[in-house]
Specification:
Layout lengths: L1 E13 L11 H4 L16 H6 L5 E12 L2 E13 L1 E6 L2 E6 L1 E2 L8 E2 L3 E11 L6 E2 L6 E2 L4 E11 L4 E8 L4 E5 L5 E5 L4 H7 L15 E3 L3 H13 L3 E5 L14 E7 L2 E5 L2 E6 L4 E2 L6 H6 E5 L3 E7 L5 H19 L10
Antiparallel strand pairs: 1-2, 1-13, 2-3, 4-5, 6-8, 7-8, 8-11, 9-10, 11-12, 13-14, 14-15, 16-22, 17-20, 17-22, 18-19, 18-21
Helix pairs in contact: 4-6
């Protein structure tokens, strides 16, 4: 008897609010360019998002295997990268620049006894030209920069599958969805200046490119509140240097902070327990006595946080976030035989 198993992985790339800093942010602040709304937790109609200029590009990979008596007898894959367009506004006029896709890179699948690993790299020039200084002669470029992602899909003989964001451009943010259409992971770091200056010299089409830090998504309550905080724009920002503790920031106990960019490590009794990425919420008022004495948060990478007065946020939403965090941290502290509190 032959069994056929199918799976997919999809990566959507978008520009979060405040992702671009310094002089490069001027077109966004003036309304010439625009940030994007966070894509939903459930994989949406990708074609509709691209048509609405709601995401920058998508990388979709589908694979299948056929299994007889526990052996892989056949396999195949399909998929493609799709670029959207960039719309800029100049007074009453709207100009739309179509993205220019580069050829998808699809190496032969890696076939093992119990699994097949499919890989696909997709991306291209994002749309509107961006005059900029670069690191190599002639030291100035006008072409639109290149954004890209490399995703892998591992499909096993028992029908289970795993998608992975293996590498990507350091801009914009990349969201990974599994076969069920669930958001599972996101890229943790955005480095706009590095991306725009190295673009065209450091990508898979020039024998470059590198992995990016990736983090699992938070719980539904934390994601919902975090997205609302992010798009509100009604916050101030703090930078947290690599290696520094969150408690060192000048943030009052009456304020809530949201991680906008970077990786933080939650330590229990000075030992790393779990990493958290963009979207993580920290509310000092919900910390237990144990948490205050045994748990601390340290920046693994340079990070940026948004800070808002707690009074502006829904208390029931904050309680839902605290419940998720308590359950998660208790899981990680179980092996220590000690109680846990939300971070």
């Amino acid at each position: 008897m032959t069994l056929r198993h199918e799976a997919s992985a999809t990566c959507l790339s978008w520009i979060p609010p405040t992702a671009v800093e310094g002089v490069f942010s001027l077109p966004f602040g003036l309304g010439i360019a625009h940030y994007d709304q966070p894509p939903p937790d459930e994989l949406p109609d990708v074609e509709a998002l691209l048509a609405a200029d709601a995401i920058r590009f998508a990388n979709q990979l589908r694979g299948w295997i056929e299994v007889e008596d526990g052996r892989i007898v056949s396999h195949g894959m399909s998929g493609e990268g799709r670029l959207g367009s960039t719309t800029v506004r100049l007074r009453s006029r709207r100009l739309t620049f179509a993205g220019v896709a580069l050829p998808d890179q699809v190496p032969p699948p890696q076939v093992h006894r119990d699994r097949v690993v499919f890989t696909q790299t997709a991306g291209g020039h994002t749309g509107a030209p961006v005059p900029r200084h670069v690191d190599q002669p002639p030291f100035w470029r006008l072409a639109a920069p290149v954004a890209w992602t490399m995703i892998t899909l591992t499909l096993r003989t028992d029908g289970t599958s795993t998608g992975r964001l293996a590498a990507a451009s350091p801009f914009p943010r990349h969201y990974l969805y599994d076969s069920a259409g669930k958001l599972t992971h996101k890229s943790a770091l955005i480095r706009y200046k590095d991306w725009i200056r190295r673009s065209g010299y450091d990508d898979p089409w020039t024998d470059g490119g590198a992995p990016v830090p990736v983090t699992a998504v938070r719980g539904p309550a934390e994601r919902s509140l975090g997205n609302a905080m992010l798009v509100s724009g009604d916050y101030r920002q703090h930078a947290l240097p690599q290696g520094r503790l969150l408690s060192e920031l000048p943030i009052a106990d009456s304020e809530v902070h949201l991680l906008l960019d970077g990786l933080l490590v939650i330590e229990i009794d000075r030992q790393p327990a779990v990493e958290v990425g963009p979207g993580a919420i920290f509310d000092p008022s919900k910390r237990t006595a144990y948490s205050k004495g045994h748990v601390r948060v340290r920046a693994r990478t340079p990070s940026r946080l948004a800070v808002l007065p707690r009074a502006r946020l829904d208390d029931q939403s904050l309680l839902g976030v605290a419940a998720e965090q308590f359950a998660r941290l208790q899981y990680y502290s179980t092996g220590r035989g000690q109680p846990a509190g939300s971070p």
